[in-house]
Amino acid sequence: MKQIGFFVLLTALFFCFSFAGQASAQSSGTTIILDGQALSLQKKDKVEIVKGSVMVPIRVISENLGLLVTWNQTDKQVKIWSGSGDIKLTIGQPTASVGDAKVRLNAAPVNRSGTTLVPLRFVGESAGIDIGWDNAKKIVTLTTSQPSEPWLPPSPTPSATPTPAPGATPTPSPSPSPAAGGLIKGIGWSDGRLAISFSGSLIPKTYAVADPSRIVVELPNTVFDPAFSTLQSYDPATQSGEFAISDGSDASHVKYAVTDAVSKTVTVTVDLAADKPFSAYQEADVESNVYVVDLKPTATPTPPPVNPNNGKKIVVIDPGHGDGDPGGIGATNKQEKSFNLSLALKVEKLLKKESAFQVVLTRHDDTFIPLSDRATIANKAGADAFVSIHANIAPGKPTVRGTETYYYAGSGKTLANVMHKHLVQATGFTDRKVKYASYKVLRETAMPATLLEVGFLSNATEESILFSDSFQDRVAQAIVDGLKEYFRVK
Ligand SMILES: [Zn+2]
User: Fold this and answer.
1) Residue 449 DSSP SS3
2) Per residue in 280-324, pLDDT tens?
């Protein structure tokens, strides 16, 4: 990052002109159409045609094409940050570079009264933008969406991966740092949705490709968590994996691979029987972030049928995470989603024996349910209480342990207090108290709601206890006892 700040500062100064009025590129009679819309250029933006190349001010590249452009005054060099390799052009130089490659230009960048003009076609194509040129009408068309190159499965023996000598044990790669980008923890498919669980940050580029129909998610600056290969289908030799989908949806396969080892790009594709609209969004829970590609943009799951009000208290038990979102990963790689589901099923079994309660679970199996859908299930069921079950992690702090309980709305505080009292008694873990937190499932539920962090999976002792059957039986009974006290059920 050392030079970037300097470059960006210079860029800011360089572009710090006062522009008055708007005009199209009349000086050359050239029109530039970006994704179907004619660019409205500033008066000062002199578009020129030099040796048959359309030359545009670098402001057009940064503001209209959305590429990060930096300027080095000393070297008279323009740098355009691009996923396919940084593009460097120098005023007066007929040679440019894209990544490590040198490229000969038709026309060298020029300076016109303080403004640098660069060849539009070269920059656009180098940055992966489709360029069309109507010479008779002097119209340049730029298309930024829908990359044209299809995703190619990685070759079985990528040259970047050294072949181990016979008999040699493969050396584990060094543990990547989540702070450096995104770390993929899980990839799954449930109910028409792709879920990519991660830590760190992801800046996904998601688009549909036709013939054959598929959805492509490109994740630059992203690597797989070392635990990923132990939890899911993954071949370290090819740095790829896949699984089939057989849920009756239009999707048939999910494939994932490191498609660029140098820039650390992971690509995930969903093969489809036909083109389908989709929506994509990120959501965050206590222990995990999930990127969701949803093929059912408007649909929410139908809540379980609810009997007419017969005086029973309707309680929704929400086992956190599921499928491609494993939640927290424990000290010995045990997954939070399994603990949550196992405990929730025990609570359900106990509540079904209580005539005063009607119980609804947000999931009964290893399924990914978006956070807002969990709240919707409870709201549509007309629930009287919502209890979300989780187990915690403290990354890099294996000694942190204990039980804590969360509420968001004031209406959930009493429920949280009562539940926590019973919970701590049952776990015997350190009392980490009742806390306020703005978690989505607590925010979007219309009834008293609480979220239980039963213990810390990242602590080896608690992880082992959390997965013990008798411990779960005891905690399940405590949850039922808490609900009975809260609703004053004998
Ligand atoms: Zn959780």
Assistant:
1) strand
2) 888 877 788 899 998 875 545 455 555 555 789 999 999 999 999
**251 vs 187: CA distance, rounded Å:** 15
Q: Nearest 5°: phi and psi at 16?
A: -85, 60
**Which is nearest to 361 in space by CA: 352, 348, 379, 349?**
348
Structure confidence by residue, pLDDT tens digits, 473-489: 999 999 999 999 999 99
Ligand 1 center from residue 357 Cα (angstroms): 25
For residues 61-74, b (16+ Cβ closer than 10 Å) or e, as one string?
bbebbebebbbbee
362 in Cβ contact with 319 (< 8 Å): yes
| Ligand 1 center from residue 410 Cα (angstroms) | 22
- Dihedrals phi, psi of 182, to nearest 5 degrees: -105, 145
Domains of the chain: 4-143 (3.30.457.10), 178-294 (2.60.40.3500), 313-486 (3.40.630.40)
Write out the two tokens for 52.
Answer: 């048959």
The amino acid that residue 213 corresponds to is S
Catalytic residue flag (residue 336): no
Cα separation, 275 vs 299, whole angstroms? 18
Residue among 453, 462, 463, 485 flagged as catalytic: 453
Joined tokens for residue 344: 């929730």
Could you tell me the pTM of the whole model?
0.60
